[in-house]
Design brief:
Layout (H helix, E strand, L loop, with lengths): L4 H35 L21 E7 L5 E9 L6 E5 L17 H7 L4 H12 L5 E5 L1 H8 L7 E3 L3 E2 L8 E3 L2 E3 L1
Parallel strand pairs: 1-4
Antiparallel strand pairs: 1-2, 2-3, 5-8, 6-7
Length: 183
């Protein structure tokens, strides 16, 4: 069964009018978009946000690497002097920290780097600088005896713990050191 000729003609005219209107709307939107892009000032003048700049003060850093009797790295610390020159921070670095910092296909633990360059401590401290992205003003690789000699003047030291120390792997309460003063 076919549509009546009048109905078919009316639907064709309505479809043509709707199509024409949609084409005109699309052309108008395209023209408006093109004019917006042509007249846009964006990107001509770079205007950044004004944010406060915080400068890190220049501080001196030192590294102390402790080796056992067989020359294997057992401990590594970085000491940073406070900007005022009094006090500072001491941070322990895992001896198996990756000296390649994720670049390359293989891991290079710092203790492996030390084994390879024990005859040249400067190369080891260059690897530490690259791993931590800091500059070291001093570095020394010491044995247990030399470490005892270095810390001798400050031993015994008094430590005050305001909170007890807990270890989640210790059975029972998990407390391994109570709060208090220790010499």
């Amino acid at each position: 069964m076919t549509a009546l000729p009048t109905r078919r003609k009316r639907r064709t005219v309505v479809g043509a009018v709707v199509a024409f209107v949609l084409v005109m709307v699309a052309a108008g939107l395209a023209a408006a978009g093109a004019m917006t892009v042509v007249n846009s000032k964006a990107g001509e003048e770079v205007v950044g946000e004004t944010r406060p700049v915080v400068q890190f003060p220049n501080t001196d850093n030192a590294a102390l690497a402790v080796v056992d009797d067989e020359g294997r790295l057992t401990s590594l610390i970085i000491a940073t002097l406070a900007p005022a020159g009094i006090g500072g921070s001491i941070v322990t670095i895992p001896v198996n920290a990756d000296a390649s910092i994720g670049f390359g296909d293989t891991r290079r633990p710092l203790d492996g780097v030390l084994d390879a360059v024990l005859a040249d401590p400067e190369r080891f401290f260059e690897a530490v600088e690259g791993t931590l992205a800091i500059s070291l003003q001093f570095g020394e690789i010491v044995s247990a005896e030399r470490l005892a000699h270095l810390i001798g003047p400050v031993v015994p030291a008094t430590v005050v713990l305001s909170e007890p120390v807990f270890d989640s792997l210790t059975p029972g309460s998990g407390q391994i050191v109570p709060a208090g003063e220790f010499a």
